[in-house]
Design a protein that fits this description.
The chain has a single domain, classed as 4-Layer Sandwich (L-amino peptidase D-ALA esterase/amidase), CATH 3.60.70.12. The chain is built from seven helices and 14 strands. The strands form four sheets. A six-stranded mixed β-sheet has the order 4-3-12-11-10-9. It is α+β, with helices and mostly antiparallel strands. It is globular and about 60 Å long. 22% of the residues lie in helices and 28% in strands. This is P1 family peptidase. GO terms for molecular function: aminopeptidase activity. InterPro entries: ArgJ-like_dom_sf, Peptidase_S58_DmpA. It comes from Bosea spartocytisi.
């Protein structure tokens, strides 16, 4: 059974997690992976679906925060401008952005014959980190079929973490990185709501990691190097927020990264995308004026805290779940989980 931060007594913050402590605690959200392991190839796709319907016709309100912009993700400009997402989200390696883009376009065109004819085009959202230390990124081994496999594998329920999907070849703080998730639950007007975070962790200098209990794990053979990693955060909630509020919540993902010891170096692409499943946007809305729910701004601190805590825990879950890995040209990353087991008590 995969261990997580809480199995080692590492508690991030004071809020209660959701039942699964995962982004899939947000009702309707689905997650799937496809992992490619073949010699020097350690990579993949991770797919996140805000709902299982047609996202082009039933869009989700969203926002983006560029913590540090050394990245190549696709679709962020339109999301920032319009405040909505209209395709599933794909996470992958840097040089597979085009492949993921093509896969999302293929699926959107098949489901919506009016795209590019009776209506506009589509804005695929693909986010990336560079897994080239452990994986032969120049091989460009991922195909559209791999992206389709991740999309088709998306499901509710428990989430596979660690060296899976887009996280297969990632590194963090000198350890093996990867995919991790966490969630928080809270009440608004007497009703239960959830906020979940999915992290693709591929950032942080060796020796900088700070655990919630104050320890600072240092991987073996640590050497000083410039920060050239990246991290992608996807923050989902079922609380009703408009896009400006979602961007403010996305910004607090950065607070969770800072708690871990990150400083967002010059070469790091650190991106947070937040969306709500409340009040979907109808592509074919006939009314001139539509009513959307929004959070009382005086209550938004609850979601700020949830985003920071869940981000911190999601990254730790990614690192703890990921096994020690030797990849391209013998490059090696030890496991934070192994370090914690060796230093228990």
């Amino acid at each position: 059974m995969t261990q997580r931060a809480r199995d080692f007594g590492l508690i991030c913050g004071i809020m209660e997690p959701g039942p699964l402590n995962a982004i899939t605690d947000v009702p309707g959200v689905k997650l799937g992976h496809h992992t490619l392991r073949d010699g020097d190839i350690l990579t993949g796709f991770t797919a996140l679906l805000p709902h299982d319907g047609n996202l082009f016709r039933r869009k989700m309100r969203a926002a983006v925060d560029i913590i540090n912009g050394f990245g190549k993700s696709a679709g962020l400009m339109q999301i920032a401008e319009l405040g909505q997402i209209e395709t599933p989200l794909l996470l992958t390696n840097t040089l597979a952005i085009g492949t993921g883009f093509d896969a999302l376009v293929t699926r959107a065109l098949a489901a919506n014959p009016d795209i590019g004819r009776g209506t506009g085009t589509v804005n695929p959202a693909v986010l990336e980190c560079n897994d080239g230390y452990l994986s032969d990124i120049r091989a460009r081994a991922l195909t559209q079929d791999h992206a389709f496999a991740a999309l088709d594998a998306a499901a509710t329920g428990p989430v596979a973490e660690g060296a899976v999907g887009a996280g297969a070849g990632m590194s963090a703080f000198g350890f093996k990185g990867g995919i991790g998730t966490a969630s928080r639950r809270f009440a608004l007007d007497g009703s239960d709501f959830r906020l979940g975070v999915l992290a693709l962790a591929n950032f942080g200098n060796a020796g900088d990691l700070a655990l919630p209990d104050g320890r600072r794990p240092v991987p073996p053979e640590t050497r000083s190097q410039a920060e050239r990693g990246s991290v992608i955060l996807v923050i989902a909630t079922d609380a009703p927020l408009e896009s400006r509020q979602l961007r403010r919540v996305a910004q607090r993902g950065g607070a969770g990264l800072a708690r871990l010891g990150a400083f967002w170096g010059n070469g790091s692409g650190d991106i947070a995308l937040a969306f709500t499943t409340a009040d979907p946007i109808d592509h074919d809305e006939p009314k001139d004026i539509v009513r959307l729910g929004a959070l009382n701004e005086n209550r938004i601190d609850t979601l700020f805290r949830a985003a920071a805590e869940a981000t911190q825990e999601a990254v730790l879950n990614a690192m703890i779940a990921a096994p020690a890995t030797t990849g391209r040209d013998g490059h090696h990353r030890p496991s934070l989980g192994d370090w914690l087991r060796a230093n228990a008590g």
